[in-house]
Amino acid sequence: MDWSERIAEFVTLWVVIDPLGTLPVFIAVTASLNAAGRRKAAIISVLISFGVLVFFAMAGHWLLRAMDISIYSFQIAGGIVLFLFALSMIHGSSHDGAQPQVDTNPIDIAVFPLAIPSIASPGAMLAAVVLTDNSRHDFPDRMMTILTFALVLLITLAIMLSAGWIARIIGRSGASIISRVMGMILAALAIDLILSATGQWLNLPPI
Asked: Would you say residue 206 lies in a domain?
């Protein structure tokens, strides 16, 4: 086993999944849930994220080739989705009173926005494809990469499960502030994804 490669993969996946960065998003979107609901949302979001990332690790290359989609197009599309989600965090929901159940269903919150695009972000999906490039990695290497995914996601789950006492301290107002600040950061990340993909496509110097 090449431990230097495994460590490099862990660092890459830690950066793109960003377990610590997921915590403020988790606190913000689960502010209306009780402790059991937050725990359920955290577990389901990690399971969904793992399934999505494993799919891209095992079949991402085939899917993109079959649909004649370039990595750059995938990255730009992911950046646009992430940007739209960031805008919703910045502006908040304008119809909370009209549809109170939308924001209090742990499963809905686990699917969107926790699993996608927060944990299994466009960057994480792209990393799953790149780190399991069929031309450079055999099946055992891909399995080790998937185990690295699992380790980072378990750490993410542990961080989210410990968020209950933080949510009690900051309250709903604090969660609202964190949501908007994280929205700005996610918007910047989304723009960076789009610009970097466009720059690589056009062979421009890095930003």
From this structure: no
| In-domain check, residue 207 | no
Tokens read off for 33:
């849930």
Residues 112-141: pLDDT tens digits? 889 988 899 888 888 888 888 655 567 788
193 found inside a domain:
yes
Show the 3-state SS of the chain: CCHHHHHHHHHHHHHHHCHHHHHHHHHHHCCCCCHHHHHHHHHHHHHHHHHHHHHHHHHHHHHHHHCCCCHHHHHHHHHHHHHHHHHHHHHCCCCCCCCCCHHHCHHHHHHHHHHHHHHCCHHHHHHHHHHCCCCCCCHHHHHHHHHHHHHHHHHHHHHHHCCHHHHHHHHHHHHHHHHHHHHHHHHHHHHHHHHHHHHHHCCCCCC
Measured distance CA(63)–CA(28) in Å, rounded: 34
Question: Has residue 24 been placed in a domain?
Answer: yes
Total number of domains in the chain: 1
Full residue range of the structural domain in which residue 50 is found: 3-10+18-201
Rounded to an integer, the average pLDDT of 181-201 is: 83
State pTM to two decimals: 0.75
Task: State the Cα–Cα distance between residues 190 and 14, nearest whole angstrom.
Answer: 17
Mean pLDDT of the chain: 82
**Cβ–Cβ under 8 Å, residues 28 and 39:** no
